[in-house]
Design goal:
By secondary structure, the protein is mainly alpha-helical. It is built from nine helices and two strands, in the order H-H-H-H-H-H-E-E-H-H-H. The longest helix has about 35 residues. It starts with a helix and ends with a helix.
């Protein structure tokens, strides 16, 4: 085996060991979120209840949102583990078939990563626009109010409060005819038109009548209410840190491409050896 091939084999094995560690971590986190979500969610909700000026129930009746995230991490972790297995076995044993399969799967993964990163920076892409509207519809139909034990409602309030945004596209996403709009705040029932989680933090702390969760002359006051949707807020955060996102994604893609290159080198070597 030539020096370059030997180096390529070592690098390929080392990188796949690193990616295997990442895959196992995703599997563990995914399993916890899928099968024992209360282990993590309870701590998060208890911590949030201690710092927020609105009520967040720490009793969760169901966790479909977290469960779906856990399932996605399980699938991602399992897929990455399988890819790494093909790469490690193919490099260690010089198995050309396994290396070819590895190259194909890693190439697909590269395309997927590049696509996801690209979508992060395309705010008005058809996929993002559709996702934003779908999320808005889900909020209108499924949000149960800030006093609910429904997981979707709790997680939406947590996201809105922590990111200082509101719902999907803004406070008008909420169904103002829902029963939760009659909100008991400090012993007084207030009629609100958006979740208190959409209020600006400094305003919410001293707002006894929750004016920040109500419309004024038919619109929400942006000086006391976060009128930006969480979808756009997340895009803003990505753009604010785009240098780090691009560097991280670029490094990841570079490592993946290196794996493919070294795998191809080993494939060519094995092909030559078998022809002798």
């Amino acid at each position: 085996m030539g020096l370059f091939s030997s180096v390529g084999q070592c690098v390929l094995i080392l990188l796949n060991v690193v990616f295997t560690s990442v895959a196992l971590s995703l599997l563990v986190i995914g399993a916890i979120l899928k099968f024992r979500p209360g282990l993590l969610l309870t701590y998060v909700l208890q911590a949030a209840s201690g710092i927020t000026a609105f009520n967040i129930s720490t009793t969760v009746s169901s966790v479909p949102v977290v469960s779906n995230i856990g399932l996605a991490l399980l699938v991602l972790g399992a897929g990455l583990f399988v890819i790494c297995f093909f790469g490690c076995y193919g490099a260690c044993c010089g198995n050309r078939v396994f290396l070819i399969i590895f190259c194909i799967l890693m190439g697909i993964l590269c395309i997927a990563v590049a696509t996801v990163v690209g979508l992060l920076f395309v705010r008005d892409s058809p996929l993002n626009t559709k996702g934003k509207e779908t999320f808005k519809t889900q909020i209108r139909n499924e949000y149960k109010g800030p006093l609910s034990t429904d997981t979707f409602s709790i997680m939406l309030d947590l996201a809105s409060y922590s990111l200082q945004c509101c719902a999907s596209t803004g406070p008008t996403d909420f169904d103002t005819s829902a029963s939760w709009t009659a909100y008991n705040h400090k012993g007084i029932t207030e009629t609100i038109e958006a979740s208190p989680a959409c209020c600006k933090k400094d305003v919410l702390a001293g707002d006894t009548t929750l004016e920040c969760a109500k419309k004024h002359v038919g619109v929400f006051d942006p000086t006391i209410t976060n009128t930006q949707g969480c979808y756009d807020r997340i895009h803003d955060l990505v753009e604010e840190n785009k240098v780090y996102v691009i560097l991280g994604a670029g490094l990841l893609l570079l490592l993946m491409v290196l794996e493919i290159v070294f795998a191809i080198i080993l494939i060519r070597k094995e092909t030559k050896d078998s022809a002798v």
